[in-house]
Every structure is written in structure tokens, then in C-alpha cells.
Amino acid sequence: MPVDHYENFPVASWLLPEHLRQPVAAIYWFARNADDMADEGAFEPAERLRLLDAYRNELRRIAGGASSADPLFQRLAGVIAEHQLPLGLFDDLLDAFTQDVTQTRYADFSDLLKYCQRSANPIGRLLLRLYRAETPQHLSYSDAICTSLQLINHWQDVGIDWGKGRIYLPREDMARFSVSEAHIAEGRVDRHWRALMQFQVERARRVMYAGAPLGRLLPGRIGLELRMIIAGGLRILEKIERVGYDVFHRRPALTTTDWPLLLWRSLRT
User: Does the predicted TM-score (pTM) go above 0.90?
Assistant: First the structure.
């Protein structure tokens, strides 16, 4: 499924040690392609679920030691075997993408966090396994960073997600700030919307800061890469604030002009 993607954060970038770039890329393309099955194109829900089930079957083949005809899974199988990556984390990602097909609203923040635990946190946990750094404390920090990145993506993409029939803003929070689905449908940016989005931006920032120590605990270029990712997430939150929370008409995004600032912030953090 060839889809062009805007990416907020570096994937297998030059900052990573060379021997980790291909394993990171294999994990990324598994997640990217599976996410596209849930999100992109004009497929009916039943077809999306069928495609995701096909990916589950490929994971079962890997678990059973069988070979795959799909180059993506051939490469992934080698990475999983070499680095002893837990297959359950890949299953969690597929479960989250399946949830994107079957669930379009979230009752409260706790409900949304459960989604993030499967849609985002497995990526950080897989990377920590690659780095041989999955201590309990590191995993806790990683979960916070990944959850924050997922929240940030939701808040910058409210309008895009609405076009796909989804709202990730918890209904409980929307009611608290007197925001209705009509606000999103109309792209209405009033004081109620701004108050809701300010609340969500500050929440995502707190979650990011809770995990930020990991950027200094991981060594060398790996730690710098992570600090760049953290700085990128925080930069998006700044941009959401600077457009007055109008993510409908001025979607905040990182550009090439942001990277020197992110590098500078990462080096001095």
C-alpha cells in the first residue's frame, strides 16, 4: 500500500548506530504498513480487518519457524530472531490498528491510555530491546514518551482524524469544556475549544516530561536520538499553542527549519 507520509520524528536516522538502522527500519515498516491498512485507502472495514489478520498470520508463521514469501516479513523475521524481540509487542500493535477500525470514540482519558499502551508503547519497548536497555525504569520512561507522542499526534490531527470518522479527544473532557462534535465538524475555534486543547496540550507535555530522563540515561547517539524525538514532540505542542489551538486550518508540523533548534535543545538538555 504505497502511501506518502509526513513524519514528525526521525526514523532510523543518521544519529543511530549503523548496526541498528536496519532493525529499526524493519520494525517501522511493519508498523507503518499495518497502520495504513487501518487508515488509508478506500477499503471497507471488513477488508481492513482481513488485511490485519493476514499480518497476524505472518507473525504466527514467524513464531512457528516457517518462512514467508513477503519480503517485509522475511526481513522482520531475521530481526526478531537476531534480537529476540517479543512477538507479543507486534501483536499489540495489530490489536491497536484493529481498534482503529472498530472503535471511533473514547469515553475518558483512561480509555485512551489503554489504546496508547498498544498503539505506541510497543515501539519504545522494541527499541529498548534492540538497545539491550529494557530495565523496568527505562520501560516506564519509554512508555511515557511514546504515549505522549501518540497524544501529540492525535491533537495535531484532530481534523484529519475527523475525516476518517474518528475522535480521540475523550468524551468526558469534551463535555467538561462544553465542546461538541460540531466544533470538530465545523472547525470551530472558540473559547471552549481553546480551553479543551490547552488542557490536552499541557497534559501531553506533563507525560513527556515524565519520560524525558530516559534521554540522558541512554548512552551516546541513541540518547541524542531520543532527546531529538522528545524535543520534536515538545516543539509540536509549542506550535499548537502558537496557532491558538486552531489545528483545523493551520496544522502544526515540523519543518526543516526546526531541526537546528531541536538539535540545539537536545545537546543542552
Answer: yes
